[in-house]
């Protein structure tokens, strides 16, 4: 079947319409469209959004297939309503050559559940010493446009400057993990009253803000595109607002967990809440929500970071940082932004599809729901509520910070180029 008729869905929360998908595209949108051979998908009451796009996903393949593979991560993504994800470069081997990014790209095509878009490392082996073959990765079959040493900061300012200059040649962007390493030696959680009382080494907000301030100045100086990963502090939002008001080509991302959770989670000493950058304070969470609402923060990026049980279920200090995100990202955005009235559905589409696709220069994603456009879309039941069961997740790992938490929103169907990857809430392969 290469045609689907979606009955009664509400594009961006508007009036119900029928949407006909045919040969990979939206063929027609209207009232009471005739099925004429198309498979009917009943969607009364469901919200239709363009397929979500993640700028920040860790798929762990190659190297840690015990934690996630391109296929299992792709399935988690499709179930979360995503049609494209950017796969971070901190794999083993590191995605710092055309060969590795092409391998990841091919694995994504074979899985066929989302478009897996490889991110290229900025420096060889993420070591922060010399630039990787950025041009070769850009010219490869993977057509890399986003470059990041994520997991590590490109700390050397001269190297960061050269990376920014270099990627201009192919309209690329450097996505920075903003963490001044000399300020976070041994850091375990947000530095503040709670880290003091828990006796855990602090990760000060200034370690993030200092790098963002430096990098927006560098991006302005060389006229290049900068993207800031997982912004976590109120001060970072202020710096970004200032930089944007000066016309700096900077974009920024916030994770679902930084929109919802705070450093109070660390009081449990449960390492599922250990993450880089750390969960911050209530005031930071409020500033992040406000920044996302007013567009200072451009996108929600999941920073989906699967970890094997032995890397997570240990003492806090020994556990790896990072938490799952793909399958609950939309639910967290509904809970923190839509239900409180801070973002409407058009806003959700903008922050989770349109802008991330634009930053990654993905031509076929983040498009309007209109005839002729690629049929990449998601149908969401915004009224459903369910409690998160980590055992039921499609990810190969179980480190969800939302275990047992009730969240709104259920992805009912996801279509990639007109083909359902999820139907009735179930992955189709
Ligand atoms: N966020 C994390 O705490 N961990 C990420 C790396 C990163 O995003 O910095 C990971 O790869 O596990
Ligand atoms: Zn990071
Ligand atoms: Zn990351």
Automatic annotation (TrEMBL):
Pathway: Pyrimidine metabolism; UMP biosynthesis via de novo pathway; (S)-dihydroorotate from bicarbonate: step 3/3. CDD domains: DHOase_IIa (cd01317). Binds 2 Zn(2+) ions per subunit. Substrate binds at residues 58-60, 90, 276, 307, 321-322. GO terms for molecular function: allantoinase activity; dihydroorotase activity; zinc ion binding. Catalyzes the reversible cyclization of carbamoyl aspartate to dihydroorotate. This is Dihydroorotase.
């Amino acid at each position: 079947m290469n045609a689907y008729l979606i009955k009664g869905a509400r594009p961006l929360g508007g009036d119900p319409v029928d949407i006909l998908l045919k040969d990979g595209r939206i063929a027609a949108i209207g009232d009471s469209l005739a099925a004429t051979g198309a498979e009917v998908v009943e969607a009364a009451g469901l919200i239709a959004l363009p397929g979500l796009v993640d700028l920040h996903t860790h798929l762990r393949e190659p190297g840690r297939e015990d934690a996630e593979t391109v296929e299992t991560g792709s399935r988690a993504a499709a179930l979360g309503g995503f049609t494209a994800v950017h796969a971070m470069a901190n794999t083993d081997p590191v995605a710092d050559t055309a060969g590795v990014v092409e391998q990841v790209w091919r694995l994504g095509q074979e899985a066929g559940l989302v478009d897996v878009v490889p991110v290229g490392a900025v420096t060889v082996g993420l070591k922060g010493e010399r630039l990787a073959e950025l041009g070769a990765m850009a010219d490869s079959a993977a057509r890399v446009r986003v470059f990041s040493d994520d997991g590590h900061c490109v700390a050397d300012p001269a190297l960061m400057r050269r990376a920014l200059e270099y990627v201009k040649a192919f309209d690329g962007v450097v996505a920075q993990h903003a963490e001044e390493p000399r300020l976070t030696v041994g850091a375990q959680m947000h530095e503040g009253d709670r880290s003091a009382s828990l006796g855990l080494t602090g990760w000060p907000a200034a370690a993030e803000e200092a790098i963002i301030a430096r990098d927006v100045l560098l991006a302005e100086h060389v006229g290049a595109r900068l993207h800031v990963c997982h912004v976590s502090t109120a001060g970072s939002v202020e710096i970004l607002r200032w930089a944007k008001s000066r016309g700096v080509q900077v974009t920024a991302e916030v994770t679902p967990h930084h929109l919802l959770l705070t450093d109070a989670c660390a009081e449990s000493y449960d390492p599922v809440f250990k993450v880089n950058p750390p969960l911050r304070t209530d005031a930071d969470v409020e500033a992040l929500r406000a920044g996302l609402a007013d567009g200072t923060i451009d996108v929600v990026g999941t920073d989906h970071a699967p970890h094997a049980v032995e890397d997570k279920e240990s003492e806090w200090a020994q556990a790896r940082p990072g938490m799952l995100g793909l399958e609950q990202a939309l639910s967290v955005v509904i809970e923190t932004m839509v239900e409180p009235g801070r973002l409407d559905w058009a806003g959700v589409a903008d922050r989770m599809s349109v802008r991330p696709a634009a930053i990654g220069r993905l031509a076929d994603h983040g498009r309007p729901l209109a005839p002729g456009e690629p049929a990449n879309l998601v149908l969401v039941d915004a009224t459903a509520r369910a409690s998160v069961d980590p055992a039921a997740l499609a990810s190969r790992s179980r480190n969800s910070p939302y275990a047992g938490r009730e969240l709104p929103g259920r992805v009912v169907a996801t279509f990639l180029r007109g083909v359902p990857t999820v139907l009735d809430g179930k992955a189709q392969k």
